[in-house]
Amino acid sequence: KRSAEAPQHEPRPHMDDNKGTTLKFRASNYPTYFVRHQNNGEVWAAESDGSESFGLDSTWRVVPGLANPEGISFESANKPGHYIRHEDGLLFLHESNGTDRFICDATFQRRAGLSGTGESFESENKPGLFIRHQDARLRVSGDDGSDLFKNDASWLRDEVAAPNVAAAEESDQAATEQAAREAAEKAQQERKQAEQAAREAAEREQAEAAERERVEKEQAEAVEREKVEKEQAEAAERERVEKEQAEAEARAQAEREQAELLAKEQAEQAAREQAEREQAEKEVETRAQEEREREEQAAREQAEREQAEQAAREQAEREEAERKQAEQAAQEQAEREHAAKEAAEKAAQEQAEREQAEQIEREKAKQAAKEHADKEAAEQAAREQLSGTGESFESENKPGLFIRHQDARAAREQAAREQ
């Protein structure tokens, strides 16, 4: 199915024009360059050399599409049964094997020339990809909207008579036999030269082997010396490191002992201060007890002297009861305030923990945003580090992949790895 983002192109009127006709196709922007196949099956846009073989290799029969009769297929005029098909983005001349994959790869739809002249050919099974030449090699590529693409993907056709394939084959056979004889004579001469070169090479190899053996022996001795020196240096380094470690441990032990002594002195000082506080509290309690005893004695004496003071004592007892009740209420109030204080401290601790967790989440979010910005900057820098001249074309659905040219074999291997 056609991608929703693929550019739409007008179909060429009269779709059946030239089907079954023998044609040549020229690049609209290089009119002297014709579509031809070469012995290895690759399809190129090449300038004519006027030879008969070039004329045969650049002649095609336009037939109804193998996968869709509304489309067209390009059959070689001098290799019947062989059709232009795309494979890994490049065009090849292959013999039809009748598989669905082959007949779809070998079927194209004719469109009005993208440049406004001639005609263009869109892939049947890869809509949006058009036959174009790039560095003379024919391939299928997506329309990027540039004038360069539109010109490279537009073709002019020349109708020609069907070639005399049989006569051409006889001429080729004679030329092949002559070339075979010349090749045999050349091979005989090359064998003699090769034998002489082999003898000279054997002598050189013997001399080189002796020299290599001497050099290797000297290198082995040098390596052995370096190994001994390295081991001695490593031993000295280990001894130095061990000595430094021992000194560091001794210093650490002295520091620990000093810290323990200081802690012991601090503990003794705290104990003395605690004993002094306890003694002072005991003296205060003793004085308070003596004072209470004197007051009780005075109260008893006063009770014996004055009967009238009985009412005062009863009033004092009531006041004492009220004081105790007040003390009890004060104690309960203090307990409630203590519980409230503990609850408030616990709530404050939980609030602090929540705020710390929120702070950690904010730091994580900032770090993620920074990493995302760094990644985008790196990708932008990578795109800006292209050649700096002309323009480059990056894949829409495979960011980081750019259109480039290279020899056909390397291109197929690279395309296979990427696929």
Question: What would you say this structure looks like, in words?
Answer:
This protein is of the alpha+beta class. Helices cover 59% and strands 16% of the residues. The chain has 6 helices and 12 strands. The strands form 4 sheets. Strands 1, 2, 3, 4, 5 and 12 form a 6-stranded antiparallel beta sheet that branches. The chain starts with 20 loop residues before the first strand and ends with a helix.
Outline of the structure:
With 419 residues, the protein is of the alpha+beta class. It is 59% helix and 16% strand.
Q: N-to-C terminal Cα separation, in Å?
A: 20 Å
| Average residue pLDDT | 87
- Sheet having the most strands: 6 strands, antiparallel
Contiguous helical run count = 6
Helix content: 55-70%
How much strand content do the residues show? 15-25%
* Radius of gyration from the alpha-carbon trace, in angstroms: 51 Å
H and E string: EEEHEEEEHEEEEHEHHH
Instruction: Tell the overall outline.
Output: elongated
Structural class: alpha+beta
